[in-house]
Amino acid sequence: MGYKVAVVGATGNVGREMLAILAERGFPVSEVIPLASRRSVGQEVSFGDKVLKVKALEHFDFSDTDICLMSAGGTVSKEWSPKIGAAGCVVIDNSSAFRYDSDVPLIVPEVNADAVAGFTKRNIIANPNCSTAQLVVALKPLHDRFGIKRVVVSTYQSVSGAGKEGMDELDRQTKALYSMKDPETKKFPARIAFNLIPHIDVFMEDGYTKEEWKMTVETKKILDPKIKLTATCVRVPVFIAHSEAVNIECEQPITAEEAREILRAAPGVLVIDKQENGGYATPLDAAGEDATYVSRIREDATVENGLAFWCVSDNLRKGAALNAVQIAEVLINRKLIQPRAKAAA
Ligand SMILES: NC(=O)c1ccc[n+]([C@@H]2O[C@H](COP(=O)([O-])OP(=O)(O)OC[C@H]3O[C@@H](n4cnc5c(N)ncnc54)[C@H](OP(=O)(O)O)[C@@H]3O)[C@@H](O)[C@H]2O)c1
Question: What percent of the chain clears pLDDT 90, i.e. is strictly above it?
Fold first, then answer.
């Protein structure tokens, strides 16, 4: 017997990827229900070789649904995730609405799968920000061996991180520029085509942006509260996959060769690191893939026990949909939930 799974935001970038990943990984489902806003009722989405019709979230009864993969933005999550959790359905929430709540686990299965057990307090598990997810996958094995004290990271984040509207804006502006027309700017705070924007999410009082703050706070919650992290988050004109230039400072001496060896054996990581043309991962290589790619590993001689590397991953997959499905797999594999239809029988 399988699980009844609802996907909220099924017409969006992340929701569509969730449906694809559930099918690809043969997730044990009895039924999959794609949900979105009223605007999308009746729209068709793919689930493996099946076509499903989208239903409205606001009219859906979750009382016999086992798992809800929630990916419709913070406002929808704030209103709906607690209600769905209270109806006995476990919510895996992709928004930032609950990530920082002490009674909601924030999970990247390769890093802190054991913390999942805390989900019972509210029936909500949070998925991290896309830039944090790939970063902690790469940091975890290095932290275990060398003890990371400080991280300096600069991100190069694709437009799909800003949803369908972000991708449409890059597409529209690029076409406009090639047709000698004025590129209209609606979604991003500046032109993104043939440009980049050092500003993601709102500004905070200390001058950092909220996206940068999220990386600091989430890394502490998932990996280790003692790690200090400073981030500069930049939107770049790439459709899919986020890249990160990372510098770490460790307690223990670290060499590039040791780091390479440890990362090669780490779950979820793929090392591509040859010092030659194309001997590294680019966003194009990572798009559509599950791995967090690590390249350009080298010692950073400007600090004691320092290392620099490059890290790339598909933000819609490891940064969102894949991580959410992996969390659901942890719940099932550890027998933390069982199908409600079976429990009632
Ligand atoms: N993109 C990423 O890299 C990424 C990574 C991590 C987390 N996330 C998070 O994932 C969520 C979705 O991101 P996305 O990139 O998939 O956005 P998106 O492409 O803009 O899709 C948004 C989805 O939410 C649905 N929705 C909007 N308002 C709704 C409502 N009132 N009731 C029900 N459904 C509603 C939309 O349905 P309609 O089509 O009917 O409007 C659509 O299916 C956000 O919380 C985002 O922060 C995204």
Answer: 98
